[in-house]
Amino acid sequence: RGHYESEERDVTRAAQDVVRLLELDRVRDDKAANLSGGQKKLLELGRALMRQPKIILLDEIGAGINRTLLAKIAEKIKLLNAERGLTFCLIEHDLDYVSRLCDEVVVMAQGAVLTRGSVAEVRRDERVVEAYFGGGKYEASS
User: Fold this and answer.
1) Exposure pattern of 40-68 as b/e (b: 16+ CB <10 Å)?
2) Residue pair 128/115 in contact by the 8 Å Cβ criterion
3) Given 40, 61, 92, 136, which is the most exposed site by the fewest CB atoms within 10 A?
4) Is there a contact between 79 and 110 (Cβ–Cβ < 8 Å)?
């Protein structure tokens, strides 16, 4: 029994640390369904952190989030990368946001790697422009 109580205290302490890190203190007792979209994204990140991962995959982290909260999420990602050595893999279409977080970008179209490089390099790549902004070989079918 003592072992489980000790383990529960450790997990509770770790959860409290994550709540503080992600600045979710004021909503920590709220139901997840009542949180804003950005707060839910932070909660998802917190849940992932509780597993002590080495890599975290984030899918469309910026979807439906206001710019202020999006900047906070970027700040936390940078902090976790610098202080804990966590690696993040993002699936994101906002290249301005990606440029603040990523050293290398891999662009995919129709399930295949189209190109890779810095954000500046992929923005200049004609295949990327064609796939995402113009008609042609890589245009998504409707």
Assistant:
1) ebbbebbebbeeeeeebebeebbeebeee
2) yes
3) 136
4) no
3 state SS of 54: coil
Contact 42, 22 (CB under 8 A): yes
DSSP 7: H
DSSP β-bridge partners for residue 116? 106
H or E stretch covering 109: strand 105-109
Q: What is the DSSP letter of 32?
A: G
- Tokens at 140, concatenated: 């998504």
pLDDT tens across the length of the chain (142 residues): 788 898 999 999 999 999 999 999 999 999 999 998 889 999 999 999 999 999 999 998 888 888 888 899 999 999 999 999 999 999 988 888 888 899 899 998 888 999 999 989 988 898 888 887 775 555 544 3
List the one residue out of 78, 79, 105 whose CA is nearest residue 94. Answer: 105
- The token duo for 70 is 């999006």
| β pairing state of 55-59 and 87-91 | parallel
Phi, psi of 65 (to 5 degrees): -115, 140
- Give the β-pairing of 105-109 and 112-117: antiparallel
